[in-house]
Design a protein that fits this description.
- The protein is an alpha/beta fold.
- It has helices spanning 40-47, 69-73, 91-101, 106-120, 135-147, 165-178, 191-197, 215-222, 236-245, 274-283, 298-310; strands at residues 2-11, 14-24, 29-33, 55-60, 63-64, 76-79, 153-157, 183-187, 200-205, 208-213, 227-233, 249-257, 260-267, 288-293.
């Protein structure tokens, strides 16, 4: 659905996007992440045809965004960070206006406006002035205008910015629903939102892609799978004896607290050894009341990658 090859964007002597390439398959929901100034907004503006690239190629479907912009843009529904709303119009007037801009046939406009209002849950405010709507409803109107014409690709830039927690949940659920029928590129600073909604993630920093994969694979690849933390009900010396008997344990640290021994153990192997550890303590009748293998959240991975780039 999207093919980006060796994309470069220069602003004078400053290179905002540095030779990045990625592909997005039809039906995927992809999160585009990056700190402020990383180049993600520039990348999204090039994808939508709002900006031209200095070098490289961008194809939307079968069409080059530079060579065949009208055909490429027909495939795109775009929600910028600040929705392009005319606040003195009613919701239905505005969406009818947008449908004219997108060249929806006169006979189809009424049906299309009703369809997108139903899809975004704004039928109940159809005749209200946009300026009198809450921020959450305005975001829904912005999504509705992106959906007019039923484009196969939606590009959403910070769709929940400025919303309260309840509104964020509502928009998140709406995006999940839209993801069943559309390919979606989603930019957001709310990493938990990206993790909950997206199939895969692209992290951009300093104009370069520093990671690209599913959340699960990123978590696996960047977490220290060999670090195991456990709490054992028993004396420190008894716990130490069991750990010394496990030849796959490289080293460990123990802390005694309230009749419990807290353990941080480093395994020599990459395999998950939690079952072996559990049974080793069970054989000595030492209950393991808690055990976990280190995993990093998406936020921790994001900070790790972007801070590394700063060094």
């Amino acid at each position: 659905m999207i093919q980006v090859d060796h994309l470069v964007k220069n602003y004078g002597s400053h290179q905002a996007v540095k030779n990045i390439s990625f592909h997005v398959e039809k039906g995927q929901v992809v999160g585009l992440l990056g700190p402020n100034g990383a180049g993600k907004s520039t990348t999204m503006n090039i994808l939508t045809g709002y900006l031209s690239a200095t070098d490289g190629d961008v194809k939307i479907g079968d069409y080059d965004i530079l060579d065949e912009p009208l055909k490429a843009k027909k495939l795109i529904g775009y929600l910028p960070e600040v929705p392009p709303l005319y606040t003195d119009m009613t919701v239905s007037e505005y969406l009818n206006f947008v449908s004219k801009l997108k060249k929806v046939g006169k006979e189809e406009r009424k049906k299309e406006v009703k369809r997108v209002m139903g899809a975004t849950g704004i039928l109940d405010v159809a005749e209200r002035l946009i300026k009198n709507l809450s921020k959450g409803y305005r975001q829904r109107v912005g999504l509705a205008q992106a959906l007019i014409g039923n484009p196969p690709l939606l590009i959403l830039d910070e769709p929940t910015v400025g919303l309260d927690p309840n509104q964020i949940i509502e928009i998140r659920e709406l995006i999940k629903k839209l993801g069943k029928d559309h390919t979606i590129i989603l930019s957001s600073h709310i990493l938990s939102e990206v993790s909950a909604v997206c199939d895969s993630i692209i992290i951009i920093d300093n104009g370069k892609i520093v990671a690209e994969d599913t959340t699960e694979n990123l978590t696996r690849d960047f977490s220290d799978q060999g670090l195991i933390k456990l709490t054992v009900k028993g004396k420190k010396e008894d716990v130490e004896k069991v750990l010394n008997s496990c030849d796959f344990i490289q080293n460990f640290a123990l802390t005694q607290k309230d009749g419990m021994t807290l353990v941080e153990a480093k395994s020599k192997v990459k395999e998950d050894m939690r079952d072996e550890i559990f049974f080793a303590f069970a054989n000595e009748k030492l209950p393991v009341v808690h055990m976990e293998q280190e995993t990093l959240s998406l936020e921790e991975i994001f900070l790790k990658l972007t801070r590394e780039e700063e060094k």
